[in-house]
Design brief:
- This protein is α/β, with parallel strands linked by helices and 568 residues long.
- It has 3 domains: 90 residues, Ubiquitin-like (UB roll); 79 residues, Alpha-Beta Plaits (2-Layer Sandwich); 352 residues, 3-Layer(aba) Sandwich (Rossmann fold).
- It is 34% helix and 14% strand.
- The chain contains 18 helices and 17 strands.
- It has a 5-stranded mixed β-sheet with strand order 2-1-5-3-4, with helices on both faces. The chain has a 4-stranded parallel β-sheet with strand order 11-10-13-14, sandwiched between helices. Strands 12-17-16-15 form a 4-stranded mixed β-sheet.
- α15 links the parallel β16 and β17.
- It starts with a strand and ends in a 6-residue tail after the last helix.
- Bound molecules: 2 iron/2 sulfur/6 carbonyl/1 water inorganic cluster (HC0).
- The site of 2 iron/2 sulfur/6 carbonyl/1 water inorganic cluster has 20 residues, from α8 and α10.
- The site of 2 iron/2 sulfur/6 carbonyl/1 water inorganic cluster (HC0) has 20 residues, from α8 and α10.
């Protein structure tokens, strides 16, 4: 430990701590832009300048380590002036369109400018004029708004191990771009959206599909249904000032009804269907022979990753479509038939914590109903904006229930929203189906928690099943390398592309941190604990679907509608 003084307060800090961390630990706020607590600090933006007595010049506190006897001042005239100048220089070549910017009120640069008390920009800078990259369904990149903090580069490389972005060119012409300056649709991008989650400005944002959804809602000839993903209900409240991890399922349903959706359904219904199909697929591969380990296929960023990086291992993926896509098919077939609605008149919207789901919905093969199965995918952030635009007082809404039957789901379905949840849901059903015995304990603690990779051995009847769970693509890569080297002895693996699983998805409210993800994950397990039914195969609406329409899991109809193949 070393003794230091920050703004007159004496404090002991472990060696190696940065001045920024030390200051934050005693409640001294130093503004930052390039710094992100989850990634290696770079000290490039210079907003976090402080005075260290005896140092030659002001220092970047995010990379400056504490040392014995150090005296730090964070609030001198020099410090405030220097910070203000740095921010003004950034603003001097930043577009002046805050009022109409997608990140208005959620922009870190805007907030720092306000906190620094900037009223006038003293410098007149040259503006940039790069074309906007929006040739893909998920993300929009506007380099004119980029402040070169490099957080997207670090998220893509350190967290995901995908390395799409790099700094290109020099000086004023420096940009962040994929190799050869191609658009994201031509880069090895998985569209996980983690870059958008860490971007402090609107240089990378989700593609906004709200206009199309408003048009559908106001078109009297259309029957507009919405499905909501498990992870949205534990995060949406954050965009309305509620604490992270607040469960807002009932208010969310009420809000969606207020803004005009005809039916409010739950992706959880088809998460239960996914378990029926994927669980049966696993049992078949295990008992009759098939490619093992079988790996889950519901996270579309993960699917993009396998198609791009491991096309030789595509057979390991479960052929079961994701709950979002199964839902899309069933709405325009089963639901349309059951309620005598012409599928042509149905507009199917999904609300997801994910940007890659926008790409998944647009895949060529996702038209098994005869139409595009899912018409529009909105992220949690977009639906929050729609609720605000409609003037709905979210915080004061009374809880309402999902509509039946596609709104009926189980605790097994809701845990899909966090890492380990799909595996746990599958194990609950696979165990009971294979042994015919009721499980004493439904909780598989070995696959829970936010550790990057988890493994467990589960005894099911005569079989010892080795399972693994990974989240983030960097961890997924380790799993895939082992499979490629034939060094993997797992039977079943769950992979989710985003940190923490969908709760940490690229479309979730900003900002995110390990603590926020922990609170959302805890809320997910709370939802499971309080659910009346906690196993997919006990969902009465799913039982009815199979009894009256689908037949059996892996049957003829399932094969055509609910399964797919991925391709390089
Ligand atoms: Fe997920 Fe899903 S759990 S991917 O993380 O499987 O996005 O929440 O909706 O489809 O159910 C996201 C979340 C989903 C799907 C489900 C799966």
């Amino acid at each position: 430990y070393v003794n230091i003084t920050i703004d007159g307060q004496q404090v002991q800090m472990p060696q190696g701590t940065t001045v920024l961390e030390a200051a934050r630990s005693i409640g001294v706020k130093i503004p930052t832009l390039c710094y992100h607590p989850e990634y290696k600090p770079e000290g490039s933006c210079r907003i976090c300048l402080v005075e260290v007595v005896g140092a030659r010049s002001l220092v970047a506190s995010c990379v400056f380590p504490v040392s014995e006897g150090m005296v730090v001042n964070t609030n001198t005239t020099d410090v405030r002036e220097a910070r203000r100048a740095v921010v003004e220089l950034l603003l001097a070549n930043h577009p002046e369109d805050c009022l109409s910017c997608q990140r208005n009120l959620h922009c870190e640069l805007q907030k720092i400018a306000a906190d620094c008390g900037i009223r006038k920009i003293r410098f007149e800078g040259e503006k940039k004029d790069y074309p906007v990259d929006n040739d893909n369904p998920a993300l929009v990149r506007n380099q004119n708004k980029c402040i070169l903090c490099g957080r997207c580069i670090r998220a893509c490389s350190e967290l995901q191990g995908v390395n799409v972005y790099t700094f290109a060119n020099r000086g004023f012409n420096t940009t962040v771009s994929p190799a050869f300056n191609v658009g994201l649709h031509n880069a090895a991008c998985t569209f996980c959206g983690q870059c958008a989650n860490v971007c402090p400005t609107a240089a990378i944002v989700e593609k906004d599909d709200t206009k199309e959804v408003w048009e559908a809602l106001h078109n009297p000839t259309k029957h507009v249904v919405v499905q909501t993903a498990p992870a949205v209900r534990v995060a949406l409240g954050e965009d309305f000032g509620l604490p992270s991890g607040r469960i807002v399922t009932g208010q969310m349903v009420a809000a969606l009804r207020r803004i005009g959706f005809d039916k409010i359904f739950d992706t959880g219904f088809t998460a239960d269907v996914t378990i029926m199909e994927e669980g049966s697929e696993f049992i078949e591969r295990l008992t009759k022979g098939g490619t093992l380990p079988m790996i889950t296929s519901c996270s579309p960023g993960w699917i993009n990753f396998v198609e791009l990086m491991y096309p030789d291992l595509l057979d390991h993926l479960s052929t079961t479509k994701s709950p979002q896509q199964i839902f899309g098919v069933l709405v325009k077939t089963y639901y349309a038939e059951k309620f005598k609605i012409d599928p042509q008149d149905i507009v199917s919207v999904s609300v997801m914590p994910c940007t890659a789901k926008k790409v998944e919905a647009r895949r060529e093969e996702m038209k098994s109903s005869g139409y595009q199965d899912v018409d529009y995918v909105l992220t949690t952030r977009e639906i929050a904006r729609m609720i605000k635009e409609a003037g709905v007082d979210f915080g004061n809404l009374k809880s309402e229930e999902f509509d039946a039957p596609l709104g009926i789901s189980t605790g097994a379905a809701v845990i899909f929203g966090t890492t380990g949840g799909v595996m746990e849901a599958a194990l609950r059903t696979v165990s009971e189906v294979m042994t015919g015995k009721t499980l004493d304990c439904l909780e598989f603690h070995n696959v829970r928690g936010l550790t990057g990779m988890k493994e467990a051995e589960v005894t099911i009847g005569e079989n010892k099943i080795k399972v693994a769970v990974a989240h983030t693509l960097a961890n997924a890569r380790i799993i895939m390398e082992n499979i490629r080297k034939r060094e993997s002895d797992y039977h079943f693996i769950e992979v989710m592309a985003c940190p923490g699983g969908c709760i940490g998805g690229g479309g979730q409210p900003l900002s995110t941190s390990p603590d926020i993800r922990k609170q959302r994950a805890e809320a997910i397990y709370e939802c499971d604990k309080s659910a009346a039914i906690r196993k997919a195969h006990e969902n009465p609406a799913v039982q009815e679907l199979y009894a009256t329409w689908l037949g059996k899991p892996l049957g003829e109809k399932s094969h055509h509608l609910l399964h797919t193949h991925y391709h390089a």
